[in-house]
Amino acid sequence: MSCMCHLPLVLAGSQLGFLVWAVALPPVPDSFLKGPYLQNVTPTGVTVMWETVQEECGRLEYGSGRQFDRAVSGVSARIHELRIRGLMPNRWYRYRAWADGKPAEGVFHTAPTDARPFRFAVWGDNQEYPVRHARGCELMRRHCPDLAISVGDVVTDGRNYDQWGKQFFEPARELLRTTPAYVAMGNHHRNAHWFYDFFSFPAPRHENYYAFTYGGARFVVIDSIQELSPAGPQYSWLVREMKSPAFQRATWRFTFFHTPPWSEGWPEWAGDEEVRRWIVPLHQQYGVTASFSGHTHDYERGFRDGTCYIVTGGGAGSLDPWARDYPHVTVYHSTWHFCLVDVGLKSLRLRAIDYSGRCIDDVTLGR
Asked: Considering the entire predicted model, what is its pTM?
């Protein structure tokens, strides 16, 4: 697999494995309406999901070598959600899902149990233009991230079933069958049941907000569309999470949510006041390294009170123009893009890449 980008392709060990395992995956049969795609990876397990044309019993085979020598089965359904357990940490596996007697193959890499270098991709607001979204997903895939995270609005209207396939799952199919993906709630999702039906996020099963550890990093996904104040359950959960041993012992602490606290990209909108009032002080108090959001269709970066704030809403939707100038926001681009974050032991590198493959921002953060 060659890199089409102008950006150098630098791979860690697990990403090198991707080149060996995923380069020759066969096409997915038409009997799969969605997927197969990966969710909620841990050191010992992963969830595989897919949707079939007709209701049938889900079957999933997997193995660590060339043979699919283990299997799990599910109940009769159209949307299948099967959990693979008892795996070895930091290891590549192959899997094969079935739909109407036809297989679709994929690969995954289990999470490490210790701090080690890895890469994740972030994007937001890919609704409206699936061809453009497919371009972004292909560029992300060629940089071989260990995780992919959307900060929301993967469809125009989450109540519309057809849009989930056309705007999100079909353009992202090749990325999602080899890369575990996580999605934050966006306003365009409309809190529809399809959001909860199509994704399987880490426990506890709030599903619209959750947290997980990967290597030496803690990832916290917040629902900025719902109640954020101390009167709601999400705020109490967030404080408990940031006080937790898992959060406190992490070298790197990231948050992801849809509406940014500050935004330069809309004439009539300067950012989410509720996020500024309730979430930003927690970032400062508990030492969040970087915070990613979307909603505004552009790229913005700035530092405030020790946290790097990134708006990465240029996934595919119509772009927003520049409108104001916050002093702490020092980088702004109105262009389609995604972010790559290379997490190291003592530093991390954040890059924003536009859809021509050009690096439009490059910054290194230390411990």
From this structure: 0.93
